[in-house]
Amino acid sequence: MKFLSLAAGLLSLAHLAIAAPVGDVDPEVAASKRILELQAQYQQNIFGAIDNRTTGCTAQNIQRRKEWSTLPKPDQAAFIAAIHCLNTLPAKTPPTHAPGARFLYDDFIVTHIDQTPFVHASGLFLPFHRHLVHLFATALRTQCAYQGPLPYWDWTLSYTDPRKAAVFDGSEHSLSGNGAFIPGRNATEIALPGGFTWSIPPATGGGCVAHGPFAQGRFEVRLGPVGYEPKGPQGGLGYNPRCLTRDLSPAYSRGTSPTAVTKLVEGCGDLACFVHEMDMPGGVPGGVHASGHWQVGLDALDVFASPSDPVFWLHHAQIDRMWTMWQGLGLKERTYQVTGTATAANDPPSDNVTLESVMDFGILGDARTIRQASSSVDGEYCYVYE
């Protein structure tokens, strides 16, 4: 098929680019090219696995997830409009549980807050967030008529400075830009799974987002904070209306460099290594997952209520892209691997997860097992990253 020929061509070109050193090659440039090679191989393997299918997920009906900067402007505008649409539809969460949840978008934040003690730094992290992103994408389509690809934010393209990312350029075709700069701020102490804390120094913003579709007056955050002071009422589930805040950090964006990604995707032979590299070391403490959140700040810093910032969905699509790519480089032996326990940082101590471990999605939908969320082309999923 045509896609396989294209993937093979990309693979060949990427290989030539890597294999032919010219002087002193910047390791980040080399790693960027290597990522393209690995992605081409992953795509080739995925399409090879489904090429002969006539039912379920096929080469004809597979959804293609795309990097934000590659989306046509009409798709960018439609995606933004769909997020605003979710903020006009009534919440399904009972007010007795989360009185601050006023709209459908808030239901996703409530579920994330409720499940954070189980689905971060645990064996549930990757499959839980895969399905949560799937539920969000489904809501955009079914509730708000979004027909375009689900976008991801490839932070390796702007790892030297997130202010240069297309997703943060502050235009009407972005997810808005930085927060207004507030000088003289203190560091933000954030709570991490397992009872740990981390101090995030102030960066380049700190105030309300001033430009773009999610600027002050155009978008409202209602839940949280839970993971830092001053905390929102009722454990972050009460009504706490405020602007979206950001503090884009070139220091923490270094943790999402191309070399961090190649070390993660190519350097790990099993899921335990992958999860460790993703969530722990990286270019700075935190790995690519935490570094993705920490370079955005401030609402994105809250481990519990981080979906308050719409870029959460693009960041976690990118995290899922890393996992999907890693799985796709060894489909048979990697797709159904599990690792870790069922509580964040094993606090309190819990059993190791299995493929039959259950994940709770609250008001958003039925529970899922890890097995059901393990493959991107089996069961209810059918997508590939381009």
UniProtKB/TrEMBL annotation:
Transmembrane segments: none annotated. It comes from the Eukaryota. Residues 309-320 form the Tyrosinase copper-binding domain. InterPro entries: Di-copper_centre_dom_sf (IPR008922), Tyrosinase/Hemocyanin (IPR050316), Tyrosinase_Cu-bd (IPR002227). Residues 1-19 form the signal peptide. GO terms for molecular function: metal ion binding; oxidoreductase activity. SUPFAM superfamilies: Di-copper centre-containing domain. This is Tyrosinase copper-binding domain-containing protein.
